[in-house]
Design goal:
Radius of gyration: 23 Å
Number of strands: 5
Number of helices: 6
CATH architecture of the largest domain: 2-Layer Sandwich
Largest sheet: 5 strands, antiparallel
Strand order of the largest sheet: 2-3-1-4-5
Oligomer: single chain
Number of domains: 2
CATH class of the largest domain: Alpha Beta
CATH superfamily of the largest domain: Ribosomal protein L10, N-terminal RNA-binding domain
Order of helices and strands: HEHEHEHEEHH
Strand content: 15-25%
Structural class: alpha+beta
Distance between the termini: 95 Å
């Protein structure tokens, strides 16, 4: 049986995983086998630029943390798994999916986005979405179009009133 110190250390890691899971809007589990150290460093830099990060934990500790939170991800916890997390819903998924295009060794397994489980297909759909900034730009463009159309209508209306 493990000593008390080892059990306390494991519980500390489990609590860390639970804390990161509860405080993140998105978590993604991915297989990192075959990625070199330099590629892992490159991935970490790209994730940090997107206000995300990843960490590698033992599957048994992640399983215990997820079970404590009532999250069933046990089928994804086979083989080496890394744990990416972020406050942004889409950014880490996009970074990981883009990285996986260039590095076939990285495989997305499963994720949780805003409390909902997302399988590989759902993660692929999320990866195709524009970024938050892109969506805001589209929204602003649409709103500017409405204001422009309104100003044209008001101008035509005022010209019509002046003629009468």
């Amino acid at each position: 049986m493990a000593s008390k110190a080892i059990l306390e250390q494991k519980q500390t890691v489990i609590d860390e995983i639970k804390n990161r899971t509860e405080n993140a809007k998105t978590i993604v589990l991915f297989d990192y086998r075959g990625i070199t150290d330099s590629e892992a460093k490159e991935l970490r830099i790209k994730l940090r630029e997107a206000n995300a990060d990843y960490k590698v934990y033992k599957n048994t500790l992640m399983s215990r943390a997820f079970n404590d939170l009532g999250i069933d991800l046990n089928e994804a916890l086979t083989g080496p798994s890394a744990f990416a997390y972020s406050d942004d819903q889409i950014a880490p998924i996009k970074v990981l999916a883009d990285f996986a295009k260039d590095h076939s060794a990285l495989v997305l397994k499963v994720g949780i986005v805003d409390g909902e489980k997302a399988d590989q297909a759902k993660l692929a759909e999320y990866a195709k979405l524009p970024s938050r900034d892109g969506l805001l730009t589209m929204l602003a463009g649409g709103m500017i179009g409405l204001v422009r159309d309104l100003s044209i209508c008001l101008d035509l209306y005022s010209e019509q009133k002046q003629e009468n």
